[in-house]
Amino acid sequence: MIIIKSQQEIEIMREAGKVTGYILAELENYIKPGISTKDIDDFIENIILKYNMIPSFKGYNGFPASACVSVNEELVHGIPSKKRKLKEGDIVSVDTGATYKGYVSDAARTYAVGAISEEAQHLITATKDSFFEGLKFCKVGYRLSDISSAIQSKVESEGLSVVRDFVGHGIGRNMHEDPQIPNYGKPGKGPRLVPGMVFAIEPMVNQGSYEVEVTLDNWTVVTLDGKLSAHYENSVVITDGEPMMLTI
CATH classification of 7-245 is 3.90.230.10, yes or no? Predict the structure, then answer.
């Protein structure tokens, strides 16, 4: 069941989203060669706590950190580590969220670590662009799969592939609510969008094949062919007019 949020609930989610968006913007300057993925997690957790919010990810289904920090071929759910140091030319995806008054925010970005290859930059840019293609269909009257289809079309037009095994989702009091929002599919299917729906829309895009696997830590997801992966996500509200992004 898709839970429609009241204006009061959306205002609370907006406060949580502002902090998450602020963190992701600050990471643009923080991420550089030589820092560890644990440094990134500590940076994020400290800001969330400073705003008297709760790290949404920490302890969620047993996840041990406040952010998923995934490097290069790692798609999602990378566990931060003091031993994992970022190097010039890496790309790093950071997925995090803050909880405020019981409501969750969720967003992700992929960052360049120093100077990166043109191919890596193309992947990051195309992934972000595909989100905004999907956002065009986050309006009353469209169907859920119109978002999915727009994302897939953009990704594949760039010569990249859309991950099938992980999808976007509804969000509110819980991190993952109905509906699931694949980043692929035919348009014109699923429920019609109405005001008060809140979605975490999150294209996950690979340079090579869309096939992925979970590593032995039972969390980190990597591309099967070892090629790079990128991630871009925002929490989005369906309104009477243009969609409202809570995490920018």
Answer: yes
